[in-house]
Known about the structure:
By secondary structure, the protein is α/β, with parallel strands linked by helices. It has 2 domains: 2-146, no CATH class; 153-270, Hect, E3 ligase catalytic fold (2-Layer Sandwich). The chain contains 13 helices and 6 strands. It has helices at residues 2-15, 25-31, 38-42, 46-57, 60-67, 98-110, 114-125, 130-133, 138-146, 153-158, 171-182, 185-196, 243-256, and strands at 73-75, 81-83, 160-162, 212-217, 227-229, 234-238. The protein has a 4-stranded mixed sheet with strand order 3-4-6-5. A hairpin with a 5-residue loop joins strand 1 (73-75) and strand 2.
Amino acid sequence: xxxFVGTLMGIALCTRFPLPLDLSSILWKxxxxxxxxxxxxxxxxxxxxxxxxEVASLTHxxxxxxxxxxxxxxxxxxxxxxxxKRDGKSIxxxxxxxxxxxxxxxxxxxxEAERQIAAIRKGLxxxxxIRMLSLFSWFDLETxxxxxxxxxxxxxxxxxRFTGVLNSTxxxxxxxxxALHSFNMEERQLFxxxxxxxxRLPATEGDWTTKFTINYLSTASDESLPISHTCFFSIDLPxxxxxxxxxxxxxxxxxxxxxxxxxxxxxxxxxxxxxx
Length: 276
């Protein structure tokens, strides 16, 4: 199954259709055989790093009080207990060995997913040779596979087209982009999912093969909800009277209207808009 995940990553690279995954830098660095650091572990387990830092800074007296029964074992992220060295369960951690102990814990945690990462790498290599990916940094690889989780509203604006009476300066269009600017990142991702079925924008300007389309829904009122067409990356907007009304209706739609609509009905825009 992990190998299959790697294959999906390869497909995402080849098709430029990003996967909505949020994975740690430990995985991406592992795929490229790049050295991991303390900050990589801290990003996924801050409490572990805080505890180890405290252990390393204890005085001899405090160490005896707090770590007197500690052995050379640690828990992995799935709560599995492993020995940090041979017969670690029977070896006590002394004050003099405290730094060696913390180093072993960090090494174990950073390398605990080695087998899984190797399987993902194998699946990825089947479609995209790993040697080619060595040209990229781990962050570049993550962006290419998963897209950028930051939804750039201005990038979306640059790749937007309008139909009917709408244009870039129309009050309804200005209100929509003003609303998007006011949204937090989760709300922007939900909006993108609502209108396109995905929660990340293309990674580069060259990856944009489809423009976002805004249609004017003249048969609706302030009581109506917008209509999205995810297959065509488009939205039909009623001519809401104010920015506040538009924001309220858009937020309701992106949180509550997650099913695919009548994408393949060419007369969808002429239907009566949804009313909450």
